[in-house]
Amino acid sequence: MVVKKGDKIKVEYTGTLEDGTVFDSTEKHGNPLEFEVGAGQLIKGFDEGVVGMAKDEEKEISIEPENAYGDYNPEMIKPIPKTQMPPGQEIKLGMILAMALPNGAQMPVKVTAVDDTNVTLDLNHPLAGKKLIFKVKVIEIN
Predict the structure, then answer these.
(1) Distance CA 80, CA 102 (A)
(2) Does some domain include residue 2?
């Protein structure tokens, strides 16, 4: 039995950047990742990369930015008036803030500049423009 679109699977993984920096892993979360293959719950390259794998198979999946978090977009750096920032919090250069999206999810944004009137935020995903490498092991197929 191999993984196909529509299967619910559990995997263990470690995600690294090209320089070897680990940015995420199931070990960090303490449990395997469970998802439905092809349902769009994960980045496209990961979702497609597990298709055809067998239970207990291990594989390295390299994902280019266009199949991960997209290319880095300089137009996604936006000045926001300080008056729109949460009150009572001192905003500093380099901070990572959580921005609420219309669907209720939160997205990490980085403060790239602060002046008297504005806070400049980088709205790109922190992994935008990066090639991602995942070591994946399928541990269950349903």
Answers:
(1) 17
(2) no
